[in-house]
Amino acid sequence: MIHHLRHGVAICALSAGAAFAQQANISIGMVLEPPNLDPTAGAAAAIDEVVYANIFEGLTRFGPDGAVNPGLAATWDISEDGTVYTFALRPGVTFHDGTTLTADDVVFTLDRARAEGSTNAQPGLFANIVSAEAVDELTLRVTLDGPDGAFLFDMAWGDAVIVAPESAESNATNPIGTGPFRFANRIEGDRIELVRNDAYWGEAVALEAATFRFISDPNAAFAAMMAGDVDAFPNFPAPETLAQFAADPRFSVIVGSTEGETILAMNNAQAPLDDIRIRQAIAHAINRQDIIDGAMFGYGTPIGTHFAPHNPNYVDLTGLSAYDPDAARALLAEAAPTGLSLRLALPPPAYARRGGEIIAAQLREVGIQTEITNLEWAQWLEQVFRGRDFDLTIVSHTEPMDIGIYARPDYYFQYARPEFVALNETLATTSDPAARAALMVQMQEMIAGDYVNGFLFQLAKTGVANAKIEGLWENSPTQANDLTGVRWTQ
After folding, report:
1. Alpha-helix runs per DSSP H in 274-370
2. In degrees to the nearest 10, what's the CA dihedral of 455, 456, 461, 464?
3. HSE (CB half, 13 Å, CA atoms) of 324?
4. What is the DSSP letter of 95?
5. What angle do the packed helices 350-365 and 288-296 form, to 10 degrees?
6. Number of DSSP helices (H) and strands (E) in the chain, helices first
7. How far is the C-alpha of 161 from the C-alpha of 312, rounded, in Å?
8. I want to staple 344 with a disulfide (CB 3.0 to 4.6 A). Which of 137, 186, 274, 392 is the partner?
9. What does the DSSP assignment read for 183-241?
10. Bridge-based pairing state of the strands 454-466 and 251-266
11. How far from each other are the two terminal CA atoms of the chain, in whole angstroms?
12. Structure confidence by residue, pLDDT tens digits, 97-154
């Protein structure tokens, strides 16, 4: 009798312990599936959303507040003339395959990114590097062609994470970094699985495993959250349902800002969009608030140039391209008296598909016909981004402070006005904060005045999570689902 009683008590105690054990696995929902897993060789934001800070790390890294913090470099010194950076790497860092991180790996990474024929999506981050050399195993010296106040910021991008020569070529399918999570498995079209890296050099993460699930359909995303199939959806694609989640104590709704300038991009090098009057007419035909309300259910901030409103150097230029259909019709009567028909290519995100239908209706009201083509993400990257075979498209540019892309002649909207290129080059060699601010104002004003693109809204970060989860980023200073501080509460 006593034996059986004690045995029962023991079972109850074990059951109670199991019941109160803290959950250590998490399932994260994402709208888009990354085409590969190498952030140094791909432009898709979904790559960084999985791997940034989780699998791969850079010399520096972005914090949740947008600050640039130490990463694999513990400290650094900058020469008086601002051209030489000497980085002290952290000791005891290993890649997931067991190889040790040394300064030679960083030299390899930087040389690979800026080499002729590099597939890095952001070559401008490395354009001013003259040389990178290993002083010793844990000391790196980088020499620039001039002072660059944004260099440490640039090194925090996902495109600048450090890779090893032994594994660089296979990172697209088997990513090997230095981060707190290791790649475990991928089932294409469904999920990517990570597990905790117990050999991590830094503070151990609370989560033992993380699964990223790809759910593009807003209705399916809603159903997955409600059923508990997904624990968190940091960039939730059905903003019309957020009020329902907010009223349910099982969930928390997380609304913040992103670096995502959402634009109606135009092919500036191709007729008829090489005519500023046509671009200006399109800009005046657009009612931003209708797009925000209709496609984003009120979530989003109107923008008049390619710059985040939360940046202290932002200038509100929305008035320059204010909704004015009469002005649009007058410009079109002059520039395209026989009428106008344009191709509108839409990638998968809801903001693009929903927003595209609204914009097509707005353009139709002023006499512009559009032929809409819905593209999958891989098609969009191939046809629009790389092939530049489009008239109009809608996309959110989520890279941090990326106005410099307008200086790239090969970039898909093909602007690169020489005066803008000169401003961008001056910015790259300017370190004084006041002087940098003045240059950024001029750059914003120039692309707004040239009506390079239709500047729509700053993408809001609208997330939903299980109420017991803490540590998810509220804002999105870079395209990432950083899980290093995420944990379940009791």
Report:
1. 276-285, 288-296, 325-335, 350-365
2. -160
3. 14
4. -
5. 140
6. 13, 19
7. 27
8. 392
9. EEEEETTTEEEEEE-TT-SSPPPS-SEEEEEE---HHHHHHHHHHTS-SEETT-S-GGG
10. antiparallel
11. 36
12. 999 999 999 999 999 999 999 999 999 899 999 999 999 999 999 999 988 888 999 9
Question: How many of the other CB atoms lie within 10 Å of CB of 489?
Answer: 11
Residue 336 is which amino acid?
A: A
HSE at residue 74, side-chain half, CA atoms within 13 A, is 11
CA 432 – CA 440 distance, rounded (Å): 12
Spatial neighbors of 190 by CB under 8 A, at least 6 apart, are 213, 214
**Average pLDDT of 11-29?**
65
Secondary structure in 3-state letters for 273-285 = CCCHHHHHHHHHH
What residue has token string 């000169």?
A: 422
Query: Would you give the distance in Å from CA 256 to the centre of its chain?
Result: 14
| pLDDT higher than threshold 90 for residue 4 | no
% pLDDT > 70, the chain: 96
* Phi, psi torsion values for 63, nearest 5 degrees: -90, 175
pLDDT in tens, 347-404: 998 899 999 999 999 999 999 999 999 999 889 999 999 999 999 999 999 888 899 9
Residue 127 CA to residue 115 CA, distance in Å, equals 10
Q: Which tens digit of pLDDT belongs to each residue from 229-282? A: 999 999 999 999 999 999 999 999 999 999 999 999 999 999 999 999 999 999
pLDDT at 177: 98
| Cβ–Cβ < 8 Å for 467, 52 | no
The pTM of this model reads: 0.81
Q: With beta carbons less than 8 A apart as the criterion, state whether 251 and 226 touch.
A: no
With CA atoms as reference, report the closest residue to 37 among 173, 203, 143: 173
Angstrom distance (rounded) from CA 295 to CA 354: 5
**Which residue, among 404, 488, 383, 484, has the nearest Cα to 446 in the 3D structure?**
404
In angstroms, rounded to a whole number, what is the distance separating the alpha carbons of residues 204 and 363?
53
Q: Would you call 419 helix, strand, or coil by DSSP?
A: helix
Q: Per-residue b/e over 189-206, b at no fewer than 16 CB within 10 Å?
A: eebbbbebbeebbbeebb
C-alpha 490/C-alpha 481 separation (Å) is: 22
Contact status, residue 37 vs residue 171, Cβ threshold 8 Å: yes
What average pLDDT does this structure show over 466-474?
A: 97
